[in-house]
Every structure is written in structure tokens, then in C-alpha cells.
Amino acid sequence: MLHRLWLLTVVFMVCITVGVSGFGTAPTQAQEPGLVDVRLPERQTVRFQLDWTPNTNHIGVYVAQALGFYDDVNLDVQIVRPDETDQTVIQAVESGAVEFGINYQEYTTFAIAEGAQIVSVAAIIQHNTTGFASYAGRNPVTRPADLANLTYYGGGKVAEAIISRLVACDGAQWQPRYAQLGVVDLVEVLQRGDADFGWIYYGWEGIEAELRGVDLDVIMLRDYPDCIPDYYTPFILTSRRLVETEPDVVRAFVHATARGFQVAIDYPLAAAELLIAAEPQLDPELVRASALWLAPRYQEDAPRWGEQRAEVWQRFTDFLVQEGLLDTPIDVSRAFTNDFLPG
């Protein structure tokens, strides 16, 4: 209880220190999700596996944990980092090693097509915030056709399909060329010229490049919806077994997490301070700038945080079939659910 009061004090002190800009107006009860009584009768522990190192895609979970929103629904949430397990998020969720995790529509679609019993229960961000970035000082890119003769840092059939389709939509043809460099800093790769372009999450890597004064040209996928269908990346995943056997646990977790993301939407800088306090190894300036950039995007064009639409799932599934990456479309009605969202 004392720890929670201390964290609340930190949040309000931050609000006073930096003023109202970046925090939004004071929330009312009508604005807050999760007010339906979803408290579990007994305390339960659940594990939540991250997809990557802690960042602002995860901020709502950290906020919910710090401000006691999980305590409010009688949950003890343990955050599991990728380096703490030998399983991918999909493997860990399906096997029951963890109850929840973060994943992406493309990987989840393939897994479901192969029979994985997994379900997306909340979209973290409504629109695709990824893009293909090049170092403006070496390879200026102003349109997709400019990627045609460039070398891509990375690989994979999905990336190849998306780049090829994107460039073709602009009247050119990409001859796949790859630079396989292992896990290294993308911005440094582009600056050194080890590769010409790479795929980034702009809300983290793009903001980091801005703060470092690195000028990137970025082709954002959401700017070309007639070419590459929009899709959810990332979202919160759980198992069909948990949905069917312990729906109250799923509902409690999703409600409390939605409250955490609502704080990140309404008070991004305060939410950033809570993530920084929980993960002090992160660059505070990056966390704050990223939180501000993402705040209007978590719920953009959606009636509530976490909402998913069948047509988004269907269009991207159809794209994968058209590109020969899937034999047949999956049943998208079983890939996601909005049933556990508040409101």
C-alpha cells in the first residue's frame, strides 16, 4: 500500500513539475475503463511474456502493475522477459508456460494456420507503426520505388512479400538482396552502410534515431493501405484453453491492462515515469518521447483501447494467401475476440 502511494505521489509530482502538457485532462469515472466489477474471488498469479526488451509497447502493463490495477482485480502479474525463457511468446502461451504475451498478426496468423490454439484479446496499437527506414545521408528514399535497388537488413518471407508488393505498387521491382548481420543496432547499420534499409518500429527506433540526430527516410506502411493491408502489431495474446476454462482471469487481466493503457493515453509522461522507475536501464528521454508519440495512436480511430476488427484480420490474411505464404485463409473469427474488453 505504501509503495502504491509513493508511486501515485511520483505521478502527481511529475504532473506538477512539467505542467499539464502531455498529460491530458483529469480523467473522470466515465472516462476510465475497467469500472465493471471483475475482481477475482481469490488471488491468482499470471505470467506475461514480453516480445522484446521493455519499451513503450508494454507501458500499460507496467502502469497497471505500478498503480495497483492488477491488485484491484486480485491478480499478481509476473512480467517475463524473452531472455528468461527458451520459448517464443506463441509457444509459451500455447503450452501454458505463460498465460499472456505480446505478439504480432503475421506470426499469429501462421501459427493459427498450423493449428495453434491461441487468441488475440486486445490490440495495443490500432494502426501499423512500422516502416522501412534508410539513412538519408546515404540513400535518400522519398517513395517505395526508391527501395528497388537497395539491400535490406534482415530477411524472411513476410518481409520479402511486403517489400516486393510495396515497390511494385509504385511501378518498380525489388530484386531481393539481404545483409544478414545478426542482432545489431539498425541505425548504426544504416549509418555505416552495412545495409541500405531496414524495418523499424517508429515509436521506438524511429524516435531514438530522432533523439540521436540521425536523419532517416522512412516509408511508413500505414501510408499505403491500398497496397499493403493494415494489420495489428503488436497485440496481447492468450490461449484458447484459458479463454474457455478461465474467462474471468482473462477478463480481469484485460480490464486492468486497459486501465493502464488509458493512463498512458491520457497522461503519457506520467506513464513514462512509471516505466522508467520499473526499468531504470532504459533511456529516460527516449521513454518520454516515445510515450508522447504513441499516446494518440494507442486508441486511434477505435471506440476503445484494444478493439480489433474482423476486416483488418481478413485483409491481411488474404494478402498472405495472395503472396503464396498461406495455402488458405484462416477463420479470423477464431483469431481474436473483443469480449474481454471493458465497456
Keyphrases for this structure?
single chain; 343 residues; alpha/beta; D-Maltodextrin-Binding Protein, domain 2; 2 domains; five-stranded mixed sheet; 10 strands; 40% helix; globular
Task: Show the helix and strand layout.
Blueprint: H1 2-18, E1 44-49, H2 59-66, H3 69-72, E2 75-80, H4 89-95, E3 100-103, H5 105-113, E4 118-123, E5 130-135, E6 152-153, H6 157-169, E7 178-179, H7 186-192, E8 197-201, H8 202-211, E9 216-220, E10 235-239, H9 240-245, H10 247-266, H11 268-278, H12 284-294, H13 310-322
Parallel strand pairs: 1-2, 1-3, 6-7, 6-8
Antiparallel strand pairs: 3-10, 4-10, 5-8, 5-9
Summarize the structure in words.
This protein is an alpha/beta fold and 343 residues long. The protein folds into two domains: 2-122 and 232-334, Periplasmic binding protein-like II (D-Maltodextrin-Binding Protein, domain 2), CATH 3.40.190; 130-223, Periplasmic binding protein-like II (D-Maltodextrin-Binding Protein, domain 2, 3-Layer(aba) Sandwich). It has 13 helices and ten strands. It has a five-stranded mixed sheet with strand order 2-1-3-10-4, with helices on both faces. Strands 7-6-8-5-9 form a five-stranded mixed sheet. Strand 6 (152-153), helix 6 and strand 7 (178-179) form a beta-alpha-beta unit.
